[in-house]
Amino acid sequence: MVHLEELNKYNVWDVIELTVKKEQESFIAGNEWSLVHAYVGNKTEGAVYPFGIIDDDKAVGFLMIAYDYGEVCNDPDAPEISDNNYFLWRLMIDGEEQGKGYGRKAVELALEFVKTFPHGKADYCWLCYDKNNEVARKLYLSMGFQEIGEQDDDINAVIKL
Ligand SMILES: CC(C)(COP(=O)(O)OP(=O)(O)OC[C@H]1O[C@@H](n2cnc3c(N)ncnc32)[C@H](O)[C@@H]1OP(=O)(O)O)[C@@H](O)C(=O)NCCC(=O)NCCS
User: How many domains does the chain have?
Assistant: First the structure.
């Protein structure tokens, strides 16, 4: 069964080694970098949630959610939608495991988690993706996200909670 597991001393090494396909590398930071961001964000605000995407006991992907991303990560370029909302900051499925439905299930589980409002109430969950990332775009739009604008090479999209 596919589920999200908070990263811990048992699963972290399997998750950190997962990688996307070569041609997708520019779409996302490596998982080890994401954990640096999580560490720093959690030092100041405690509002970053890194999860392994686990099928039974096999790590197949990684995702990370943040609340009030611009504030937590001291990012002056964060879009306005990041204020007091949840951000599906990172999502990756290992290159060997893609195309099996894990990505869609992971977004469903991420939204379920966000709707428990772990860091306080919010109206929206937002995310962003490279404008050339057609697979991600199709996935998110098919799940109800709506595009709200472009920033640098990324498209921002949002779903009402
Ligand atoms: C985007 C990503 C998470 C999707 O994960 P996945 O497990 O392969 O996706 P799924 O198997 O759940 O498929 C979900 C949808 O994606 C689309 N999709 C998946 N693989 C595809 C492909 N090779 N070509 C076109 N569309 C594809 C389909 O629309 C599919 O919809 P369906 O369920 O109606 O068939 C994965 O491709 C990935 O990790 N990419 C690299 C990192 C990345 O880009 N992350 C997103 C950053 S914002």
Answer: 1
